[in-house]
Amino acid sequence: MGISDGEAVHKKAGPRLDFHMVEARGAGDMHCRIVAENREKYPMPEHKMWESVGPIATSDMIKYAPEEDMVTDPQYFREECGYKFCNGTCAEYDAASWYRPNGSAGGAGYFWPLFDMLVKKGRINEEDLDRAVHCVMEAAGKAQFGGWYAVEGVRSWLGVPAEMKDGRVMGGFLEVYLACQGVPVKVEAFNKDEVILRIDRAALDQRMPKQSPAYVAYWYGMTKTLVSAEYALWEEPEGDAEKVLRVKIAKKIDKFC
Description:
By secondary structure, the protein is α+β, with helices and mostly antiparallel strands. It contains eight helices and eight strands. The strands form three sheets. A four-stranded antiparallel β-sheet has the order 5-6-8-7. It has a two-stranded antiparallel ribbon with strand order 1-2. Helix 4 runs parallel beside helix 8 (211-226). The longest helix is centred in the middle third of the chain and has 19 residues, at 126-144.
């Protein structure tokens, strides 16, 4: 529902859709189906979000899949589907392209309608929002590798030599992370003194606003624990900053004063 609202708010994509979980796999019901309706056309009494389970206005549209007819693999792993996922709007993806940049952080869409409403009502302003996003994401990044076992686990996974304890550890991690997201990245510098990565901003933002600053704050916090408190990650923009997020990882004195 948050993703739908986010699209409507930021893209004026049309009326808000109300989602009802007819059957909830997350609640232990393996028959999971979600039905969305335009409440301007199909009005219903007001209800709380957590009450959005069960019969809805057009209950005749609810379909029940017997367990014996269910499949266990997604379309892109099934021969009868040509190893491709295809939806009702004719979008097609195979297993290699399914984890595409514009579909990997949809959860962020749940927050933007709330933020938009709070700004419009004057409860917060854009500066408050930017500050909150920065503080939350930086703290989350520091917590990511708060335990020594987490640091050693990442170093072992990446195959980092024991003697390497500089910005290349975070740089290598970021390269792998971005590759998994399908986000294009180019290496400008990668040595013991500095790591500079040029990241495709549009792919990283994933069609949602304010993603890049949130990522930078998150990665800054991660650098502090994955590498050491002497190191930092920050943006050093150049002329193509609208298209490229240029981040640097190096030693930096960064005091709150």
